[in-house]
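Hi, here's the filled form for the chain we discussed.

Project: internal
Contact: R.S.
Residues: 430
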Amino acid sequence: MIFRFFFWVLDLFYRRTLLGGKVPPSGPLVIVANHPNGLVDPIVVACVAERQVKILGKEPVFRMPILGWMAKLAGAIPVYRSQDGHDTDLNRGVFDAVHAELAQGEAIVLFPEGISHNEPGLQKLKTGAARMALGAEALAGIPLGTKVIPIGIVYRNKARFRSNLAVEIGDPVDVAPFVDVWNQNSKEGAIALTKEIDSALRKVMLDLERWEDFPLLELATKILDDEDEHRVTHLRNLAIQGKETFEKDPEQLLKLKGRLSRFDAHLKRLGLSVEQLDASCSPPRMAWFTIQNIVSALLGLPLAALGLLYWLPPTLLIMLAVKLGKPEEDIVATVKVLGASLFFPIWMACSVWIGQHYLPTSTFGLPEYLFAFSLLGFSGIFGSYFLRQRKEAWEEFMVLVRLLSMKRLRSYLTNERDSLRKVLRGGLDS
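And the returned structure, exactly as it came back:
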């Protein structure tokens, strides 16, 4: 029940896309994922697993108000870390609990990086996931068929409401081939399986060495304009392609980055995007575009304003919580999502109570007030969408104005884009 509520909040906060395969519906599983977003990541994994899971979490969470209670109610298992001031010998009970869950065919979730972070790439993995999976197989005495399921999590802007979230489920890693090595030398067996898990995770996430490379990768995907692949898949393939090229010919890759940087600088100075280079900018189209957006703004403004005003108090409370709490960057989204989970339902309940006690009740009863305030809730989502659409419409209008007076420069940029597209499609070998 708790997870279902947070699944709803998750899909309200992010626009989620599921890629790859599916988590097996039965059998013992160790589900592993990268960890860029604090306490939101466990909710993401539990949501896409579509089966009951037991989540391993750092022990301090279990002592937090509300969060600790929810973690215990959800059956989460505390992990004792040295950086939290604990004696790691306490984790013997954790391993026993995990082994028992796997022996019963259950699924556990953990984050083998051991920390939540804001780095662009996968951090060095701990061997805990491997030791748990192999230990369960060894203790059972018979093959359990334990598998490790890698899940990659990629946020477009993790602290922003209604930003994109891509979750990719990778191919299962079979634990059985590593059992013999484990039985002979547990340390070597755990290291070998951990390397396999590391490789599997890198195949389902966006693994970069520097955040500075991300804008150029995004630009390259837009130049290629390949609609057959999801954006995250495309970004990852280009990143891998770039690493391979750098190993073979560093000078060539640096030259290509220079061209992309100059092309990007030209676009930014003009306030253009790659897609807008092909935009039709005739005066009749501009007139029709203007009329459409004026009508849309006039029709949508009342509902959008109502929704935004209604949700302003809890939104301000969330902003205040972030400002006062001063959380680390990888925890900001966690504070916002949990704040929305707490303040928004309380605000709606208060609204219904105020409506019942201080507004005329001769016509409206509790069901009517619940319905009315539910509509107000959806109007808030519409308000967010409305503002985004109006901002994009204004930017597109200004682009059309610029393009009318920049035909020669537009032609140069279009030719450069086409040239870069040939280079990129040629596997960076041109």
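Let me know if anything looks off before we file it.
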